[in-house]
Write a structure and sequence with these properties.
Elements lengths: L6 E6 L12 E5 L2 E7 L5 E5 L13 E3 L2 E3 L6 E2 L5 E3 L14 E2 L1 E4 L2 E5 L17
Antiparallel strand pairs: 1-11, 2-3, 3-4, 4-9, 5-6, 6-7, 7-8, 10-11
Amino acid sequence: MWLRNCWYVIAWDHEIPPADSPTLFTRTVLGEPVLVYRTQAGELVALEDRCCHRHAPLSVGRREGDCVRCGYHGLKFDRMGQCVEAPGIEIIPAKAKVKRYPLVLRNKWVFVWMGDPALAEDALLPDNFS
């Protein structure tokens, strides 16, 4: 049993590859696989590292701009976790999505919130300057 509604350090800032890198970064936090990458604008994004279709790891797929494409069946997810493209399907179901985690960069540490996203507040971040 883990505490979910709190911030966890997932990485150092320098561990997350730059936006122009094809490399995807993944960690397991509280038993859940989490994919972290940077958008073209440099924003950090954390998504569930498990495709909603067959649970293949998105981290073994590829980056396409600010999106990630699953290497198993080719579903493409935007930075919000919504599936925006699926081969052979014109209308994508709204339920085709992966979980997005709140993420904050503070003092070169990357923090992820594993609980209810509505409860994630930057004010709850621990003071890591002391």
